[in-house]
Amino acid sequence: MAASTVAVSELLHKMNTRMSVLYPKASCVMGRINTAGSRCESQLRPRAKSVSQHLVGVVGLEVHAQITSNTKLFSGSPVGFSAPPNSLVSPFDASLPGTLPVLNKRCVEAAVMTGLALNCTINKKSLFDRKHYFYADLPAGYQITQLRRPIAVDGVLAYSLLEGKNRGQVIKKTVSIKQIQLEQDSGKSLHDDARGQTLIDLNRAGVGLMELVMEPDMSCGEEAAAAVRELQLILQALGTCQGNMSEGQLRVDANVSVHHPGEPLGIRTEVKNINSVRYLARAIDYEIQRQIKVLQRGGTVQNETRAYDSKSGETIPMRDKEGLQDYRFMPEPNLPPLIVYEDNASLPAGVDARQVVVVQEVKAGLPQLPGVIRDRLVQTHGILPEHGFTLVNEDGLTEYFEAVLKGTKKEPRKVIGWVTNELVGHLKQQDMSVSQSRYVHDVAFSFNEVWPAGL
Question: Rounded to a whole number, what is the distance in angstroms from the first to the last CA of the chain?
Fold first, then answer.
């Protein structure tokens, strides 16, 4: 048996030597073929000596989406991003004694609509809880949230990855949504290093949030970024969250660990408050590689909270989570159970339908979701999948594309080429959105002044 193995090895060595002489580039080609795979696999596979050392990443997400509403979750204070500090603060937001919460119906409707769009089960009865922790920008010393029974559970988010040559292959994936819960946002702590002091702005304190908890069904930064981008588009289509990450309207915490396939999950770290889809992908991939290197050196991954430094491209430790923090959860005594009704027939006698949330009425108002629009564009107009993503990703671009088709009767493939290359390129140069462009408001102008002759 040993002799035959040696013989085979010698034969393979001679074949490789002859191939390298006759076809010097063949080994490079074979190497590229053998290592081909998805971007997730190529980024995350460590250079291990054996299959037993192969570690893979596991990623779960917690997304905090600021609800689009005129007022806050439990007070009548208006919601605004660029208002002067502490100008949008009610007595309740400042936690003055004797103030009580009054639930905002709009925020409940937004949570129910988001849950329905993500195929969640809507709990007809949900509960509010107090989560105690002490930060300067949380004047009450606790946050009102939903731990025991959130408003929506057991959903699914479908998203897609573009792979293959010219990113023309669509890979469809899903991630499970564990729950959606309503909760308050905190204020902001503004650190003045020059003067050695911290300033508190409570304008954001009490703004309504939806926390969406995604199960650890993803394996790399690319998948997580695609899932968050799809969620962002869904929330914008629903009108439940504007999703502007630069303004903190959508913030992501990533729970990252590595393990050997088939074995229990490893110790996880949490990368907090990532405010960009691009940075989310980079932070996760860096963290996976960091943990793999720690384990390969014989070390132990620490259960800790980390932050992503966009300048260095690294995650840095913030605080240790080994000592479990006691949030002292307790039922919120100032709020009764939140009741929503399936339909008008289930309303108790004497209840005004205008004062409650009815699930079927919310469901009837659901718009067409981004994934459905993309599929329709590809099937109806024969455009490529990546073009469908471009149209849907830019607010207003789908409507413009179809208006051009209707107004000019030109072939979709010619129109889409001009829209995705010329128009989108021009808008990026001018740092403009689609809705701000005069081309979009005047289809005739677009084609008379900008459309290339002969097309």
Answer: 70
Q: Which amino acid is at 17?
A: T
The sign one gets for the Cα dihedral 297, 299, 301, 304 is negative
Kindly give, in sequence order, each residue whose CB lies less than 8 Å from that of residue 264, ignoring residues fewer than 6 positions away. none
**Highest averaged pLDDT of the listed ranges 3-7, 229-233, 262-266, 388-392:** 229-233
Burial letters for 397-414: b for 16+ Cβ neighbours within 10 Å, e otherwise?
bbebbbebbeeeeeebee
Token look-up 């300033």 returns 199
User: Of 88, 115, 252, 85, nearest to 181 (Cα)?
Assistant: 115
Per-residue pLDDT tens digits for 83-98: 999 999 999 999 999 9
| CB of 104 closer than 8 Å to CB of 70 | no
Residue 368 vs residue 46, higher pLDDT: 368
**Cα 339 to Cα 357: distance, rounded to the nearest angstrom:** 8
- Token digits of residue 453: 């002759």
Identify which of 252, 260, 228, 271 has the alpha carbon closest to the alpha carbon of residue 44: 260
**Closest residue by Cα to residue 282 from 323, 251, 254:** 254
Angle between helices 397-408 and 385-393 (to 10 degrees): 110
Residues 6+ apart with CB under 8 A from 50: none
- Residue 38: half-sphere exposure toward Cβ, Cα within 13 Å: 14
What CA–CA distance (Å, rounded) separates 286 from 309? 11
Q: What is the model's pTM?
A: 0.85
Task: At 128, list the tokens.
Answer: 């509010």
Which of 134, 149, 160, 145 is closest to 222 using CA atoms? 160
Q: Over the Cα atoms of the chain, what is R_g? A: 27
DSSP 71: B
Long-range CB contacts (within 8 A, 24+) of 312-315: 313/282, 313/286, 314/286, 314/290, 315/269, 315/271, 315/283, 315/286, 315/287, 315/290
Q: 152: part of which helix (H) or strand (E)?
A: strand 152-163
Q: How many C-beta neighbours within 10 Å does residue 395 have? A: 13
Burial class of residue 85 in the structure, from the number of CB atoms within 10 Å of its CB (0-12 exposed, 13-18 middle, 19+ buried): middle
The helix/strand/coil state of 386 is helix
Q: What is the Cα–Cα distance from 44 to 219, expressed in whole angstroms? A: 9
Between the alpha carbon of residue 224 and those of residues 63, 79, 159, 370, the distances in Å are 11, 29, 10, 18
Question: Cα–Cα distance between 34 and 23 in angstroms, integer?
Answer: 17
* Calpha distance 207→80 (Å, rounded): 10
